[in-house]
Predict the structure.
Amino acid sequence: MAIAQRGTASNYLQRAPSPSGLADVLDVILDKGLVIDAFVRVSVIGIEVLTIDARIVIASVDTYLRFAEAVNRLDLSQTETAGIEELRGGGSKQKAQGAIEGVKEKLTPGKDKEKESSRS
Amino acid sequence: VSAEASTAEPPTAVGTTYVYGVVPAGSIDAIASTGVRGASVEIVEEDGVAALVSDLPDELRVTRKDLRRHLDVVDEAFRETTILPCPFGTTVESREEVVADVLRPQRDALVDGLKRLEGTVQLNVKVRHDEDALLREIVAAEPAIAHLRQETAGGGGAYGQRLELGRLVAAAVEAYREAGAARVLDALAPEALDVADEPDDELVLKAAFLVERRRQDRFDTAVDRVADAEQKLLRFEVIGPLPPTSFVERVVGA
């Protein structure tokens, strides 16, 4: 939550003493650490849904079209912006982008519901 | 199903003793943080090593709260001493097993692992592209892309041209990603004892750096420098100092 920034205020470097988002917490404690034969791991139902490499594989064609549109959308020299909507008749680009962003949404479910006090 | 709901049934598949990690015996008097399921955290010692444990009152379910508690316990120990943290959800059958099956038989490996991680911290670094800035740069740098971009502007051009444009851009993005990752690693690795690269398709770089605690300021300065130098295209996120969870397996070969 609290993001400490060093030096001049920068939007390109953010620091936090401790993970606050669920994805970052999982990153630190889920599959890493001391593993010994005698240990029994809790079956982590629910967590798997969160981490099962949540990235949805996007067909490369979709990726290409997404990049093509992203490049087209760039406001380089105040040229046209009209007609971009028609670029994708189907709208699968929205799906592709939505997939990527959706993952991050899923990784922080109930963020608003269960407010946990952040130590930082 | 409420994630925090408790079950009346006794634990079955799960052991009754939850283990957070192992520390040197005598290095910490007590843990004040609340453990998983609200249990207190106790210290079980045996011949130079000690486990941080809780009795599990009932079945452990995975909740955000318990994930946080696990991390808080590990973090509290980390601030006082050296800890070999266990992954979330680690249990053993009984309190007796902590000594009989973990601390006693693994003693030498644990002592050795603790020694190797003594005085170290972990910094998790994530680097991503500012996508718009990157795409601008790519259009400016590659005439073929700029040309196709114009051809397909406003929804014009053939499907094949759009596909080709996207293919070229995707390849350029990948090249920038690889080059960016290499530059950042080159800048930071010299200030670290070890690096655990944890590749992520969405990121330029995702890595954990093992750093000497007393030299963390040097690592921080290296981060400042490379982030400054790369500010046009790269966005940095640094979390830590963390207990070195990414490096435990490297020092205690299970």
